[in-house]
Amino acid sequence: HGDRVPACVADMSLVQRARPDVFRYRLRQALTLEVYRWQKQIEFGRFDEESFHECALLLKAIKEERLSAMMQLEVLNRLAGKGMLMSLQERRPKLHRHLGFLDGLLSRVENERSNHVRKAWLPSSMAHSGTLPCAPKSATIPKERMVSSIAVGGRQGDLIVTCHGGKDVTVWKKRKTKRRSEDDWLKSEAQRAKEREQEENRDPWAYAPYFKTQQLEEDLGTAVCVAMTSDGKRFFSSAGPAIRGWVQAKKVRGGPKGPQFRCESIMQGHTKDVTCLKIAHRQLFSTAEDGAIRIWRLRGTDALQSATLSMTAPCTSLCLLDTATEPRDMSGLHAVAGLRDSSICVLPYSLKSQWLQGAVWNAKLTVKCSDAPVTVLDFRHRLLYAGTALGKIHAFRPVSGAEDMGTLQKVANEMERLGYGRSAEEFAKTGLSDGRSAGSPLREVVRLDRAFVLDCHAAAVTSLCLAGGVFFSAGADMAVVSWAKPRDDRTAQFRAIPQAGQAPPKRLSQAYSHAKVVHKAPITAMDVAGDFLLTADADGNVCCTVAKKFREIVDTKATEAQDESFLEEEVLEKPKFFHQRELSTLSARHFLAHLLAHYYPMRPLSHAAKGHAPEEEPGVEEESSDEEYLDDAFVAGGFTHEDEDGDTGRVPSGDELESDEESLESLSSEGTENSGEDGFEPLPSESEEESESELSSVSGSDSEEDSEAERVYEA
């Protein structure tokens, strides 16, 4: 016999076929309310399994309805091309508006989903998809072709800035993906397979997913490194010992395609060439060959802070780390610089204006990494990675003051001296000094514990990057290596709670995952732009690698409300079928039918549809009537056709009869009041008596005919 079709599905099909306009209106309203309720549930709770399955059903239902509307629109377009059924062409603007609404709702659900579901790349599926030719073909000297740095900005990595040849800075804009036309659903499977085959067989060395919008030539000095803000409005490039700031200019009608940048400022302070630039917390960090590190404003020309790390060894790398666990806690910020003498310097810094303007910035910790110069630094997985010129990657675990027994003892003595006048939380924020210290002693890094060493590259490690949840390393041996997430090799028995103030000794390790060689020259830089992994080489090319397969990771962290006002927020009631059915087993059509049944429940038509007065219960007011299920002419107040006598042919309802009786009573009362000023009632004239006698005779004949008709009807 098959599965039983739910009543809501049958009702939805009936409304969809009988009144498509009403169906589309209810569909839009129901989807809008449900998406709003779904977002509020995530905001006040968390993105759990139910929210995940509901999101999948919402996306599928919206896409199916969008495809249905596109098919209807295609039919109307073909009929219009042949000049047939012009009366139906008024439906086209309605379908266009319906498609626009569905597109907006689809993007809204997808954006909310992207905030809670992350795509983890599978390293084994990485494939070369395009190449950006930075250096021109006329450049034959290797030094003029080498790409030294990459910077990414804009939404989803739309903008890229590259620096090559020591003097050229190029701005790239991402190409727009080929928009699917309305005729794509008409293509056969063979045509679609052919298009996919053409895309797969496309030569990645001849295709560029980005196009060049602007090329700038540096004349102040050697351009080695670049850094760009996350919004893509500004970027900075090195010009020898100076730093040049660029800002996006206003668009001019008829001007070049893509964003154009103009020089905004020139920052001078270093005495030798700048080697590295980083942007964080709306500030610019720079290191140079003079062994100094400086902090700059993004819109200024003077340095806010500076520290000299070495008088002989130049700074070659820079990264930023944070020991605080909360995102809003700014008391654990540190700048880490790597020197050519294989040492690592850790400098705590603060964003407070009091520290930026008057404090002396010094390195609080210096560690010897290895016997080889440090080439690159990166802070990932709560570990500090340092790549060396010998191809090894040393991993260190930063230990803060809250994990060191000596620092805790020092803090306890200071609090005892102060007489416990301040709480521990206030003491952790202000520190031991008068506010001129960079951070709290409980947040500052007191030592770096060696965790493990990764040995995979045959030449110097040039870049480290975290993309798609995977940690990548690139080196001068032309290889890009992916690494698994660090794991703790200790047994459960050994993971006992340590003594207070002592961090548990971790025996960490990180396994090798995959390695891939794409370039034909040593790799010099690496960065991530949206779904692309960008790797630059010494031959002037930037290869774009993309993952063909993903693994979805759902973030189920509960949101913490700042106050209790969110409890007073009015949230729509959850549909009842959520508790009665498993969302993972529902189809998109059944899910949509249940939604329509929840927000627009179908009720049987009352006697009003048959022309009788509705039976209303005393004291109960209905919020909605059944008129929305009736014909438009009936809802408007009857049929538009009238008889010769002015009768519309519609049976009056009980309310109308009562109103007529009240009007007659009011007229009779007015007649008695206005009959005469002294209460005198005039007698009827002879003509009026004759007319009344005629009416009585006519009414008598009508009553006889009615009685005969009743007897015939009973028979």
Task: Sum this structure up briefly.
By secondary structure, this protein is an alpha+beta fold.
Which percent band covers the strand fraction?
Answer: 25-35%
Number of helices: 14
**Number of β-strand runs:** 32
The strands making up the biggest β-sheet line up spatially as: 2-31-30-29
Helix and strand layout, with pairings?
Layout: H1 7-18, H2 20-44, H3 49-81, H4 91-114, E1 117-121, E2 126-133, H5 142-145, E3 147-153, E4 159-164, E5 168-174, H6 189-200, E6 210-217, E7 226-228, E8 234-239, E9 242-248, E10 261-268, E11 274-280, E12 283-288, E13 292-297, E14 303-308, E15 315-322, E16 333-339, E17 343-348, H7 353-358, E18 365-368, E19 374-380, E20 383-388, E21 392-400, H8 405-417, H9 424-430, E22 445-455, E23 461-467, E24 470-475, E25 479-483, E26 487-488, E27 508-509, E28 512-517, E29 523-529, E30 532-537, E31 541-547, E32 550-554, H10 577-580, H11 588-599, H12 632-635, H13 654-673, H14 686-714
Antiparallel strand pairs: 1-32, 2-31, 3-4, 4-5, 5-6, 7-8, 8-9, 9-10, 11-12, 12-13, 13-14, 15-16, 16-17, 17-18, 19-20, 20-21, 21-22, 23-24, 24-25, 25-28, 26-27, 29-30, 30-31
Helix pairs in contact: 1-2, 1-11, 2-3, 2-4, 2-11, 3-4, 3-11
